[in-house]
From TrEMBL:
This is ADP-ribosylation factor GTPase-activating protein. Keywords: Abscisic acid signaling pathway, Calcium, Cell membrane, GTPase activation, Lipid-binding, Membrane, Metal-binding, Nucleus. GO terms for cellular component: nucleus; plasma membrane. It is found in: Cell membrane; Nucleus. Residues 1-118 form the C2 domain. It comes from Musa troglodytarum (fe'i banana). Pfam families: C2 (PF00168). GO terms for molecular function: GTPase activator activity; lipid binding; metal ion binding. Belongs to the plant CAR protein family. InterPro entries: C2_dom, C2_domain_sf, CAR1-11. PANTHER family: OS07G0108400 PROTEIN, PROTEIN C2-DOMAIN ABA-RELATED 4. GO terms for biological process: abscisic acid-activated signaling pathway.
Length: 180
């Protein structure tokens, strides 16, 4: 198993024009994955494990939900994409798929690796453009903000008739972790 490099906080901000899956709209929630490995957190009790599959709360009857929820993934392989799926929560049947997306975090990780402590707050480090590998709906800037590397992202969901998600990535160093 690779060593732990740090944490990637994925803030799921909101969904826009998500697909209707029920007569009254949808009851969406978001699942965020990375890799699928099981990694023990060395700084927590031994029985706490990260399965690298995290989800938001369910927003009832809403195709434009606002979550503003933080999901934190451990990063041991920076080449793995972040995988996102949106589902409609159903009570008596399997949850319906409402689209998916992948985010290539390599440009973000490259920005994290730079020595940025001396640059002004709000400086754009680099810009990522939409391509076949990242599901971006539009250009996205990676910014140095309040001593952290931050990226606001809008992803267009695939395998569905409509829908976008607004997300924010933020890198969190772990004290004592080898990092980059």
């Amino acid at each position: 198993m690779d060593h732990l490099l740090g944490l990637l906080r994925v803030r799921v901000v909101r969904g826009v024009s998500l697909a209707f899956r029920d007569a009254t709209g949808s009851d969406p929630y978001v699942v965020v994955r990375m890799g699928g490995q099981v990694i023990p957190f060395p700084f927590l009790s031994p029985h706490v494990l990260s399965k690298q599959k995290l989800k938001t709360s369910v927003k009832k009857h809403n195709v434009n939900p606002v979550w503003n929820e933080d999901l934190t993934l451990t990063v041991s392989d920076p080449l793995l994409p972040v995988k996102i799926r949106v589902y409609d929560k159903d009570t008596f049947s399997r949850d319906d798929k409402m689209g998916d997306a992948e985010i290539d975090i390599v440009p973000f990780i490259e920005a994290v690796k730079m020595n940025l402590s001396d640059i002004p707050n709000g400086t754009i480090i680099r810009t990522t453009n939409p391509n076949r590998h990242n599901c971006l709906a539009e250009e996205s800037a990676i910014v140095w903000k309040d001593g952290k590397v931050v990226q606001d992202i809008i992803v267009r969901l695939r395998n569905v008739e409509s829908g976008e998600l607004e997300l924010q990535l933020l890198w969190v160093d772990i004290p004592g972790a080898p990092g980059f």
